[in-house]
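Assemble and predict.
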Amino acid sequence: MLSTPTLSMFEKALDAASMRQRAISNNIANVDTPYYRSQSVTFESELQKALAKSSTTFVAYRTNEKHLAFGLPSLENIEPKLQIDSSAGPMQNAANNVDLDFEMINLARNQLWYNALVQQTNGQFTKLRTIIGGK
Amino acid sequence: MGLFGSFDISASALTANRLRMDIISSNISNANTTRGEYVNGQWQPYKRKVAVIEPKTGASSFENFLQAAVSRTGMSTVNGVRVSQIVEDRTPPKIMYDPTHPDADARGYVALPNVDMLKEMIDLMSTTRAYESNATAINAAKAMAMKALEIGK
Protein backbone atom coordinates (compact mmCIF):
# COMPACT_ATOMS: atom_id res chain seq x y z
CA MET A 1 0.00 0.00 0.00
CA LEU A 2 2.88 2.30 0.74
CA SER A 3 4.48 1.96 -2.69
CA THR A 4 1.95 3.92 -4.70
CA PRO A 5 2.65 4.83 -8.34
CA THR A 6 2.84 8.48 -7.35
CA LEU A 7 5.56 7.81 -4.80
CA SER A 8 7.60 5.71 -7.19
CA MET A 9 7.30 8.49 -9.76
CA PHE A 10 8.56 11.02 -7.22
CA GLU A 11 11.40 8.67 -6.40
CA LYS A 12 12.43 8.54 -10.04
CA ALA A 13 12.13 12.29 -10.43
CA LEU A 14 14.35 12.79 -7.36
CA ASP A 15 16.88 10.36 -8.85
CA ALA A 16 16.79 12.31 -12.10
CA ALA A 17 17.33 15.59 -10.25
CA SER A 18 20.35 14.28 -8.33
CA MET A 19 21.78 12.81 -11.52
CA ARG A 20 21.30 16.17 -13.20
CA GLN A 21 23.13 17.79 -10.28
CA ARG A 22 26.06 15.50 -11.02
CA ALA A 23 26.01 16.37 -14.71
CA ILE A 24 25.93 20.09 -13.94
CA SER A 25 28.80 19.70 -11.44
CA ASN A 26 30.81 17.93 -14.12
CA ASN A 27 30.11 20.67 -16.65
CA ILE A 28 31.10 23.42 -14.22
CA ALA A 29 34.23 21.52 -13.16
CA ASN A 30 35.29 21.12 -16.80
CA VAL A 31 34.48 24.65 -17.92
CA ASP A 32 38.06 25.24 -19.10
CA THR A 33 39.00 21.69 -20.12
CA PRO A 34 39.92 21.34 -23.80
CA TYR A 35 37.79 18.91 -25.84
CA TYR A 36 35.24 18.46 -23.06
CA ARG A 37 31.60 17.95 -24.20
CA SER A 38 28.83 19.09 -21.92
CA GLN A 39 26.36 16.60 -20.44
CA SER A 40 22.67 16.85 -19.75
CA VAL A 41 19.98 14.60 -18.25
CA THR A 42 16.64 13.96 -19.96
CA PHE A 43 13.76 12.71 -17.89
CA GLU A 44 10.86 15.14 -17.65
CA SER A 45 10.40 15.48 -21.41
CA GLU A 46 10.14 11.69 -21.80
CA LEU A 47 7.69 11.59 -18.92
CA GLN A 48 5.58 14.30 -20.52
CA LYS A 49 5.47 12.36 -23.78
CA ALA A 50 4.41 9.17 -22.04
CA LEU A 51 1.80 10.96 -19.91
CA ALA A 52 0.26 12.74 -22.88
CA LYS A 53 -0.65 9.50 -24.62
CA SER A 54 -0.57 6.94 -21.85
CA SER A 55 -4.29 6.14 -22.13
CA THR A 56 -4.39 5.24 -25.81
CA THR A 57 -1.07 3.59 -26.51
CA PHE A 58 -0.27 0.20 -27.81
CA VAL A 59 2.95 -0.97 -26.25
CA ALA A 60 5.04 -3.95 -27.21
CA TYR A 61 5.40 -6.56 -24.51
CA ARG A 62 9.07 -7.39 -24.30
CA THR A 63 10.49 -10.38 -22.51
CA ASN A 64 14.08 -9.55 -23.40
CA GLU A 65 15.70 -6.16 -23.50
CA LYS A 66 17.07 -6.90 -26.96
CA HIS A 67 13.56 -7.09 -28.39
CA LEU A 68 12.49 -4.14 -30.51
CA ALA A 69 10.47 -1.64 -28.55
CA PHE A 70 7.49 -0.11 -30.27
CA GLY A 71 4.71 2.01 -28.91
CA LEU A 72 5.43 4.40 -26.10
CA PRO A 73 7.18 3.14 -23.02
CA SER A 74 5.01 2.72 -19.96
CA LEU A 75 5.60 5.11 -17.08
CA GLU A 76 7.53 2.54 -15.10
CA ASN A 77 10.08 2.11 -17.86
CA ILE A 78 11.07 5.74 -18.09
CA GLU A 79 14.51 6.26 -16.65
CA PRO A 80 16.63 9.40 -16.44
CA LYS A 81 19.23 9.33 -19.21
CA LEU A 82 22.56 11.04 -19.49
CA GLN A 83 23.22 12.69 -22.83
CA ILE A 84 26.34 14.23 -24.22
CA ASP A 85 25.85 17.40 -26.21
CA SER A 86 27.96 17.29 -29.35
CA SER A 87 26.92 20.63 -30.79
CA ALA A 88 29.56 23.27 -31.31
CA GLY A 89 29.89 25.52 -28.32
CA PRO A 90 28.82 29.12 -28.60
CA MET A 91 31.73 30.79 -26.94
CA GLN A 92 34.90 28.81 -26.42
CA ASN A 93 37.68 27.93 -28.79
CA ALA A 94 39.26 24.79 -27.33
CA ALA A 95 36.51 22.47 -28.69
CA ASN A 96 34.71 22.83 -25.38
CA ASN A 97 30.99 23.58 -25.47
CA VAL A 98 30.15 24.39 -21.84
CA ASP A 99 28.08 27.53 -21.41
CA LEU A 100 28.75 28.57 -17.82
CA ASP A 101 25.77 30.95 -17.52
CA PHE A 102 23.44 28.25 -18.74
CA GLU A 103 24.92 25.78 -16.25
CA MET A 104 24.57 28.16 -13.31
CA ILE A 105 20.93 28.83 -14.18
CA ASN A 106 20.31 25.11 -14.53
CA LEU A 107 21.96 24.59 -11.15
CA ALA A 108 19.54 27.03 -9.49
CA ARG A 109 16.56 25.60 -11.35
CA ASN A 110 17.47 22.03 -10.48
CA GLN A 111 17.80 22.94 -6.82
CA LEU A 112 14.33 24.52 -6.72
CA TRP A 113 12.91 21.58 -8.63
CA TYR A 114 14.44 19.14 -6.13
CA ASN A 115 12.98 21.13 -3.23
CA ALA A 116 9.57 21.06 -4.88
CA LEU A 117 9.79 17.30 -5.34
CA VAL A 118 10.78 16.76 -1.71
CA GLN A 119 7.87 18.92 -0.59
CA GLN A 120 5.42 16.97 -2.75
CA THR A 121 6.80 13.66 -1.49
CA ASN A 122 6.31 14.87 2.04
CA GLY A 123 2.75 15.83 1.12
CA GLN A 124 2.12 12.25 0.03
CA PHE A 125 3.43 10.93 3.31
CA THR A 126 1.31 13.41 5.26
CA LYS A 127 -1.77 12.17 3.47
CA LEU A 128 -0.86 8.56 4.26
CA ARG A 129 -0.31 9.49 7.88
CA THR A 130 -3.69 11.17 8.04
CA ILE A 131 -5.35 8.05 6.65
CA ILE A 132 -3.53 5.80 9.12
CA GLY A 133 -4.44 8.07 12.00
CA GLY A 134 -8.10 8.03 10.99
CA LYS A 135 -8.87 11.38 12.54
CA MET B 1 26.65 7.07 -6.92
CA GLY B 2 24.07 9.44 -5.56
CA LEU B 3 24.17 13.04 -4.64
CA PHE B 4 27.51 12.71 -2.87
CA GLY B 5 29.25 12.08 -6.18
CA SER B 6 28.70 15.68 -7.13
CA PHE B 7 30.66 16.79 -4.04
CA ASP B 8 33.65 14.81 -5.28
CA ILE B 9 33.33 16.29 -8.76
CA SER B 10 33.23 19.87 -7.52
CA ALA B 11 35.99 19.21 -5.00
CA SER B 12 38.28 17.92 -7.76
CA ALA B 13 37.61 21.13 -9.66
CA LEU B 14 38.43 23.23 -6.58
CA THR B 15 41.73 21.38 -6.24
CA ALA B 16 42.57 21.82 -9.92
CA ASN B 17 41.74 25.51 -9.88
CA ARG B 18 43.78 26.09 -6.72
CA LEU B 19 46.76 24.46 -8.41
CA ARG B 20 46.25 26.65 -11.47
CA MET B 21 46.19 29.66 -9.16
CA ASP B 22 49.44 28.52 -7.51
CA ILE B 23 51.06 28.25 -10.94
CA ILE B 24 49.88 31.72 -11.91
CA SER B 25 51.29 33.09 -8.64
CA SER B 26 54.58 31.40 -9.42
CA ASN B 27 54.63 32.95 -12.89
CA ILE B 28 53.84 36.44 -11.62
CA SER B 29 56.36 36.33 -8.79
CA ASN B 30 59.07 35.10 -11.17
CA ALA B 31 58.32 37.64 -13.88
CA ASN B 32 61.85 39.07 -13.54
CA THR B 33 63.81 35.99 -12.49
CA THR B 34 66.84 35.65 -14.74
CA ARG B 35 68.29 32.68 -12.83
CA GLY B 36 65.56 30.08 -13.27
CA GLU B 37 67.79 27.08 -13.91
CA TYR B 38 71.50 26.42 -14.40
CA VAL B 39 72.20 24.71 -17.74
CA ASN B 40 75.72 24.03 -19.10
CA GLY B 41 77.38 26.61 -16.91
CA GLN B 42 74.87 29.32 -17.83
CA TRP B 43 71.86 30.72 -16.08
CA GLN B 44 68.59 30.40 -18.01
CA PRO B 45 65.64 32.69 -17.26
CA TYR B 46 62.53 31.31 -15.57
CA LYS B 47 60.07 29.79 -18.04
CA ARG B 48 56.35 30.40 -17.77
CA LYS B 49 54.47 27.31 -16.49
CA VAL B 50 51.06 26.22 -17.77
CA ALA B 51 48.70 23.64 -16.24
CA VAL B 52 47.22 21.10 -18.64
CA ILE B 53 43.76 20.05 -17.49
CA GLU B 54 41.72 17.06 -18.57
CA PRO B 55 38.46 15.39 -17.56
CA LYS B 56 39.03 12.91 -14.74
CA THR B 57 37.87 9.46 -15.75
CA GLY B 58 37.74 6.79 -13.12
CA ALA B 59 37.56 4.08 -15.78
CA SER B 60 40.50 2.09 -14.52
CA SER B 61 39.04 1.09 -11.17
CA PHE B 62 36.86 -1.96 -10.70
CA GLU B 63 34.27 0.06 -8.82
CA ASN B 64 33.67 2.30 -11.80
CA PHE B 65 33.29 -0.58 -14.23
CA LEU B 66 30.80 -2.20 -11.88
CA GLN B 67 28.93 1.07 -11.39
CA ALA B 68 28.64 1.64 -15.15
CA ALA B 69 27.46 -1.93 -15.71
CA VAL B 70 24.91 -1.93 -12.88
CA SER B 71 23.29 1.43 -13.58
CA ARG B 72 21.72 1.19 -17.00
CA THR B 73 21.09 4.91 -17.02
CA GLY B 74 24.10 5.74 -19.13
CA MET B 75 26.20 7.12 -16.30
CA SER B 76 29.23 8.77 -17.80
CA THR B 77 32.71 7.89 -16.72
CA VAL B 78 33.68 11.55 -16.40
CA ASN B 79 34.18 12.27 -12.73
CA GLY B 80 35.42 15.80 -12.35
CA VAL B 81 38.63 17.35 -13.57
CA ARG B 82 42.33 17.08 -12.85
CA VAL B 83 45.61 18.70 -13.76
CA SER B 84 47.39 16.05 -15.82
CA GLN B 85 50.72 17.83 -16.15
CA ILE B 86 52.48 21.15 -15.80
CA VAL B 87 54.34 22.16 -18.94
CA GLU B 88 56.69 25.01 -19.73
CA ASP B 89 55.73 27.69 -22.21
CA ARG B 90 58.13 27.41 -25.17
CA THR B 91 57.92 30.95 -26.43
CA PRO B 92 61.40 32.54 -26.54
CA PRO B 93 62.46 34.78 -23.65
CA LYS B 94 62.15 38.53 -23.86
CA ILE B 95 65.49 40.14 -24.74
CA MET B 96 66.32 43.45 -23.11
CA TYR B 97 69.41 45.65 -23.50
CA ASP B 98 70.94 46.27 -20.08
CA PRO B 99 74.77 46.07 -19.91
CA THR B 100 74.78 46.72 -16.15
CA HIS B 101 72.80 43.55 -15.42
CA PRO B 102 74.96 40.78 -13.88
CA ASP B 103 73.39 38.17 -16.22
CA ALA B 104 73.88 40.20 -19.41
CA ASP B 105 75.75 38.48 -22.25
CA ALA B 106 78.88 39.84 -23.94
CA ARG B 107 76.87 42.28 -26.07
CA GLY B 108 74.92 43.58 -23.08
CA TYR B 109 71.60 41.80 -23.67
CA VAL B 110 69.64 40.08 -20.87
CA ALA B 111 67.15 37.23 -21.43
CA LEU B 112 64.07 37.85 -19.27
CA PRO B 113 61.32 35.28 -18.53
CA ASN B 114 58.58 34.83 -21.16
CA VAL B 115 55.93 35.82 -18.61
CA ASP B 116 53.26 38.16 -19.96
CA MET B 117 51.72 39.95 -16.99
CA LEU B 118 48.50 40.74 -18.86
CA LYS B 119 47.97 37.08 -19.72
CA GLU B 120 48.62 36.03 -16.15
CA MET B 121 46.16 38.53 -14.70
CA ILE B 122 43.43 37.40 -17.09
CA ASP B 123 44.15 33.75 -16.30
CA LEU B 124 43.99 34.62 -12.61
CA MET B 125 40.58 36.25 -13.05
CA SER B 126 39.11 33.35 -14.99
CA THR B 127 40.50 30.84 -12.49
CA THR B 128 38.98 32.79 -9.60
CA ARG B 129 35.58 32.81 -11.29
CA ALA B 130 35.81 29.09 -12.04
CA TYR B 131 36.66 28.44 -8.39
CA GLU B 132 33.64 30.49 -7.25
CA SER B 133 31.32 28.65 -9.66
CA ASN B 134 32.42 25.32 -8.24
CA ALA B 135 31.96 26.55 -4.67
CA THR B 136 28.41 27.56 -5.64
CA ALA B 137 27.82 24.10 -7.10
CA ILE B 138 28.96 22.50 -3.82
CA ASN B 139 26.59 24.70 -1.85
CA ALA B 140 23.72 23.74 -4.14
CA ALA B 141 24.48 20.05 -3.72
CA LYS B 142 24.66 20.52 0.04
CA ALA B 143 21.30 22.29 0.13
CA MET B 144 19.78 19.45 -1.88
CA ALA B 145 21.23 16.82 0.44
CA MET B 146 19.87 18.68 3.48
CA LYS B 147 16.47 18.91 1.83
CA ALA B 148 16.49 15.18 1.10
CA LEU B 149 16.86 14.54 4.84
CA GLU B 150 13.46 16.16 5.32
CA ILE B 151 11.63 13.45 3.35
CA GLY B 152 9.11 11.72 5.58
CA LYS B 153 9.67 13.99 8.53
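The interface with chain A takes residues 1-3, 5-6, 9-10, 12-13, 16, 53-55, 72-76, 78-81, 126, 130, 133-134, 136-137, 140-141, 143-144, 147-148, 150-153 of chain B (CB under 8 Å).
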